[in-house]
Amino acid sequence: MKAKIRALTHRVSQADMGAAIGRINQILRGGTNYFRRAVCKHTSTTSSTSPNGE
Question: Which residues of 16-38 are buried (b: 16+ CB within 10 A; e: fewer)?
Fold first, then answer.
């Protein structure tokens, strides 16, 4: 994900600013949706056990 954004924001890039921002937005939303499942799964497994081990 970092490499994709870095490629779009290279200092000498000739890409249209609006198009670049739109593409970065898509990449970030895709990454967020991908990692959301992992965080949600981790939260649900850790919250189902009580801290006292009961």
Answer: eeeeeeeeeeeeeeeeeeeeeee
Residues 6+ apart with CB under 8 A from 28: 1, 5
DSSP strands (E only) in 1-54: none
- Contact between residue 20 and residue 9 where contact means Cβ atoms under 8 Å apart: yes
Asked whether the beta carbons of 29 and 5 are under 8 A apart, the reply is no
Q: Which element (helix H / strand E) includes 8?
A: helix 2-8
- Tens digits of residue pLDDT in 8-54: 777 776 778 888 889 889 988 888 877 777 766 666 666 555 555 54
